[in-house]
Amino acid sequence: MKTNRMATWKRRLVGRKGNDGLIFKIVLYVLLTGISFIFLYPLLSMLSMSIMSLEDLIDATIAWIPRNLTLSNYATAFNYMHFQEALKASLQVSVYPTIATVVSSALIGYGFAHFKFIGRKLLMGLMVATFLIPTVLTYIPTTVLYRDLSVFGIPLGLSESIRAFTIPAMLGNGIRQTIFILIFYQFFRIIPSDLYEAAAVDGSGVVRTFVTIAVPMAAPAFLICGLYSFVWYWNETTLARAYFGNTYTTLPMALEAYINTYRSLYAQGQVSLDTVSSTYNLGVQYAMTLITIAPLLGVYLFLQKWFVEGVDRSGIAGN
Amino acid sequence: MKRLFAKLYAATLARPVAKLKAILKAGWRSFVVGIVEPLRAWRIRTIRPVASKIAGAIGLKAVGRFLRKIPQKWKNMFYGYLFVLPWLFGLGLIGVPLLAKSIRMALSDKYYFITGVGWKITGDWSDFTQFKRIFGDEPWHLEQIVATLKDISLVVPLVVIFALILGLMLNQKLKGRAIFRTIFFIPVILLSGNMLSNFSNSGLLTVPAIANGTISRLLSDYFPAFFATIVVTAFEKIVLILWLSGVQILIFLAGLQKMDQSIYEAAEIDGASMWETFWKITLPALIPLMYINIIYTTVIYANLSNNAIVSIINVNSSEQGSLSGTLTDEVNYGRAYSAALSWVLFAIELAVIGAYSGIIKLASRRYD
Questions:
Q1: Is A3 exposed, middle or buried (0-12, 13-18, 19+ CB in 10 A)?
Q2: ipTM of this model?
Q3: How far is A135 from chain B (nearest CA, A)?
């Protein structure tokens, strides 16, 4: 009788397979919650400081919870950033290059993964090599080159500034695009080869096989690459400043301009904790930062449902 | 709490998500059914007879016969080049010029900007001036190089392993999984572009208890000092590693999403334990993604500004960092020196990636 009870307890604690027991679950939740705290900490502290009034910001006795809530920092931030125009600019600057990146990466990745041609390994080695060159080194040559490319490039109905982002992305040289090409390469490679063979037996041509078999099977790769390149183009400010100048001011660029002004004013002694400015303080800065990254978190929240539900594998029989 | 989130989700996002999904799915299907298939049918039914008639009329039948005789291997080769063509253009227009330029920059005496003229390069490449300086004249920089190599080769495997573990954890059946996954996306956002520099000054990216020394004080009260420093440095590194592994976690997660659930079910019926399924099913499937994560981690970590070589490069270029500025801005070592140093960093990256990919390749040989 006793051994029986021991056995049930053991099963409850350890579980049948090892990952369904109570101990495993507790360890999992504790670890995930702890790590989540590390990631959430900057956002939470920014959030709490962004709803503080000026008096609360200076008051050293207030760490987290403001004495009186205020949204005035957000109002200042929205006005300073010219939110609507900046949002529009941000969307334009990141959506086109993202589409170009995903489409070209998928094509290039499929070419490398599915076909054997002379010099394939060498070309892939070159691709990784161009990715390894430190960005500090290539910054100037890149900006000069991209500007030339966008001037001579096909118009595509896009302004010259956006072309400076989009054309390299179409040619497989967007921001960190090598990693996307490699992701697609690996996802196309792990598709079981009998699927391809079955398609070939059916008389399916190259384009048809790509469109009906390879693309649906690599859905997570599309999700990941679209997401990352959207975030990376959205947050890009150094290259953006080099290409756009003043034609586009995206949300992160507005934020950076604000921080630069703030810092220089601070250095001149015009703004400090004693002579508080209602425009230049940490509360407004953090409100702006949150406004800048909020659309990204929103997009992710929107898309992560796909991760949770798993990838739709309808229409794929066998395997 | 969960119900509240579910309600919130149902009220706000559920319908647009479902709609977008339906549109995408229907869009792709109608693209296949409406455009790809009819085009194919049209090609076969209309174009082919006409084309063959025309070909017969001009006497091109032989060409067609010749084309049909080309072995599939050659045709595949052609299609391979066709798919890679955009990138080949990119290589010719962007990749090769950049490579050439950066090599020339490193193999020069001076690299500077004259207003109205542009960027100037002086010095004979075959002198290897800058490399002689790095390896001959600057023992302190050499030390930094070795330190960077050690640092990168320590952090990269840790990041990849952490990302693997966290990816597996986020793939478990959990309550609040969606929330956890959203939180784990924060590092991806905050570590891109110049976002990081908006926080690092305020010390927001470290856990406050480490930053103000609470933990180390607590530890040194009860344990010998050397133990406390070890624990604190390890903990600091772990926080950094966690922040660095955001992208990699989602790459692994995407790989896990592609896994066929029926394999796991079959393994379970055969009585396989969690460990066995992990080592024999999950891990082999994730190995291809491990190479990607090694490459990505190495490149990102090597270009982080807290890296010793990168900080030397930035200090020795002008205030905009990034090797820009005029001849008068040539502080201390100059941009040509920095360019050569960048190539040393390149070599370090290559060595680290090569070593760890080699290890994984050797270790995964038993799966073949």
A1: exposed
A2: 0.84
A3: 7
